[in-house]
Amino acid sequence: MKHKLKKFGFILNRKIPVDKFLEKALYEPKVGYYNNRIPFGKNGDFVTSPTISNLFSEILAVWIISTWEKFEKPDTFNLVELGPGDGSLTKILIQTFRKFPEFNKSVKIFLYEKSNLLKKIQKKKIASDQINWIKNYNSIKKGPIVFFGNEFFDAIPIKQFAIKNKKFLEKCYFLKRNTLIETYKRASSIDISKIKSFNTLKKQNFVEFPKLGFVELNKIIKKISAQSGGILLIDYGYLKSFNGATLQAVRKNKKIKMDNLLNHIGKVDITYLVNFNLLKEFFEKKNLKVKNIVTQKFFLETMGIIERAKIIEKNMNKQQKKDMLLTLKRLLHENSMGELFKVIFAHNYKNNNFLGFE
Length: 358
Ligand SMILES: C[S@@+](CC[C@H](N)C(=O)[O-])C[C@H]1O[C@@H](n2cnc3c(N)ncnc32)[C@H](O)[C@@H]1O
Fold this sequence. Notes:
The chain is an alpha/beta fold. It is built from 16 helices and 16 strands. Strands 2, 3, 4, 5, 10, 14, 15 and 16 form an 8-stranded mixed sheet that branches. Strands 1, 6, 7, 8 and 9 form a 5-stranded antiparallel sheet that branches. α5 (54-70) crosses α6.
C-alpha cells in the first residue's frame, strides 16, 4: 500500500487538504482515476447523459444553434466543450450541426480536456478537422464563445470547511499506513474571506467550496467578458441550502465508503453535488446574467426532446422503441437524472431570453 500511495505522490503521516488529495486521486498522471481508465458507459463506473442517449446530445445541439441565432448569427461562433469525457457529446453535435449548413459554416469547436488518456479516446472517436484540442483559451481570438460542460464542474476537486464557534477549519486527510483519517487544520485567511463573501454560504457550519472550480470559471469569464458569450453547465446538484458534506466515491455504479477509499484509489471516481445557488451568485458577482436554474427534465423537455423522440420512433422496431423509452425515462424522470441534474446558463449578452429556461 505504501508503494501504491507513493505512485500518487502522497506523503504519509502528513495532513493533506481534501482538494489536494482529490487532485492526486483523480488526475495524477498515469495512475489517477481519469488517467488510467475509461469510466463511462454500461461497463464503466457510471453513466452520463451523453453516454446514455444521443437524444441528449441532439437536443443540446438544437440549444446551441438557437443560442447562435439569439447572438444574431455571428460569422464566427466558438464552442468549447469542457471535460468532453469519451467524446460522445461532441460526436453527435458534429453530426447534427451538418444538417444546418449556415450554422455549420460559422461554428468552431474546441475541446478542453485535462486527462491525456481521455484526450486519446476523444481523438479516436471524433477525428474531424473541425475540432481543436486546447490547453487554454488563448487561441480563440474572435467571435462570441459559448462554453458548455456536462458533469464537468463536479469533477473538479473541492475544499471542505467546518465552522465551529466562528472558527474556520479546513478538512484534511491524514494518511497513516493503510488508513485515511479525517482531520482538520486552521483555514487560510484568504479562503475564509472568500467564503464569507458569499451570501449563499452564510449560516452554514459545514461548507463545500469549489476553489479550483472557480479558478477554472474565472479563466472562462475573462474570455466571455473580452469577446462576449456564455457558459452552460449541467451537473448533479442542489438548490436548497445544504449544510453538510456531499463528497462521494463511486465504482461500478455503487458507492464506496470514504474510509475504505485507499483500497480503491485510482479505481474510483470521487465527486460532489454542485451548489447551484452558489454558482449563480458567483456568476452574478462577475456581472454575468443568469435567468433561471432549471432541472434537466425542464431543459430537455422545453427544448423538444419528446417531440424529437416521436419523430425518430417512426423508423424504429418494437425493441428499439422500448430501449428509447427507457433511456428517456432515465434522462427525464423525477427520481432519476430529470430532477437531480440542474442546468445553468450565465452570459453577458444584452438580451436574457435564451431558450430552455422559461
Ligand atoms: C465526469 S466526466 C464527464 C464527461 C463528459 N462530459 C460526459 O458527460 O460524459 C468529467 C470530465 O471532465 C474532465 N475534467 C475534469 N477537470 C478538468 C479540468 N480542470 N480541465 C479540463 N477537463 C477536466 C475529466 O477528465 C472528464 O473528461
